[in-house]
Amino acid sequence: MIKLHQFAPAFGLPNASPFCMKLETYLRMASLPFELVNSGDVLKAPKRKLPYIDDDGTLVADTSFIIEHLKARYGDPLDAALSPQQRAVATAFQRLFEENLYWAVVQTRWADDAGWQKTRQAFFGTLPAPLRWFLPTLARRGLLAEMRGQGMGRHSAAEIQAIGCRDVTAVADFLADKPYMLGEQPSSLDATAHAFLANLLWAPVDSPLQRHARTRPTLEAYCQRMKARYF
Ligand SMILES: N[C@@H](CCC(=O)N[C@@H](CS)C(=O)NCC(=O)O)C(=O)O
After folding, report:
1. Contact status, residue 205 vs residue 115, Cβ threshold 8 Å
2. What is the dihedral of CA 200, 201, 205, 209, to 10 degrees?
3. How many angstroms is it from 184 CA to the middle of ligand 1?
4. Which residues line ligand 1 (CB under 6 A)?
5. Ligand 1 center to residue 19 CA distance, Å?
């Protein structure tokens, strides 16, 4: 049985980590049986980030490597029929979500003071004292340092939100009125798109980015479609 090691659910979402939610969505889409381990223990993770899987004793980290592993071991029901052009588009959008939009969402949750109050309560509120007193500040400091190292953190809040809004516009314009990102059939790109868009639309963290996403009703309809089909 595949064990999916991830953070505990928060914000009323299957997971407030878009990467953890991406992998759970993929496993559901590919009809692979799995067990959730909601320990949130990054120190046990091979690359010190979640999620990772334990597949009958084989540990695999990073959602892209995990999905490659799953395809090689259990088959590729979602992407096998994609054309080279569709694969190229999927790769480009995956990078948009995971390498760029992700940091704009991080800004709304970890840098913005009002967002941080929500994040702190949702992610750390149930921790026992004394962890509850110092871990949130350490985690916040660490993530903001990562954001600065990545480069996004060097921009102003308004600039970061404008960058993220352009990503959301690109996704909404490309999705248009198609049922799934690449057309009539779902592909693994939809695991990423659903996880990142649901985290943006449905987390109780107000931001210019969220308000912008909510002006595009096809994004809400898309997430509802994915939720109804796979969750
Ligand atoms: N490229 C990785 C990204 C995973 C990732 O960034 N996970 C975050 C949560 S969304 C994490 O574990 N952060 C903990 C930390 O940085 O200490 C993947 O695709 O799995």
Report:
1. yes
2. 60
3. 30
4. 17, 19, 42, 49-50, 62-64
5. 7
Separation of alpha carbons 16 and 181, rounded Å: 22
pTM for this one? Answer: 0.97
Q: pLDDT tens, 196-226?
A: 999 999 999 999 999 999 999 999 999 999 9
Residue 48 to residue 53: CA distance in whole angstroms: 13
- Choose which residue among 19, 53, 119 to substitute to test ligand 1 binding: the one with the highest number of ligand atoms within 8 A of its C-beta: 19
Token pair recorded at residue 126: 């149930």
- CA–CA gap between residue 146 and residue 153 (Å, rounded): 8
Residue 40 has what DSSP assignment? Answer: -
What does the angle CA 94 – CA 99 – CA 104 come to, to the nearest 5 degrees? 115
The two tokens of residue 95 are: 């990078």
Q: 6 C-alpha to center of ligand 1: Å?
A: 10
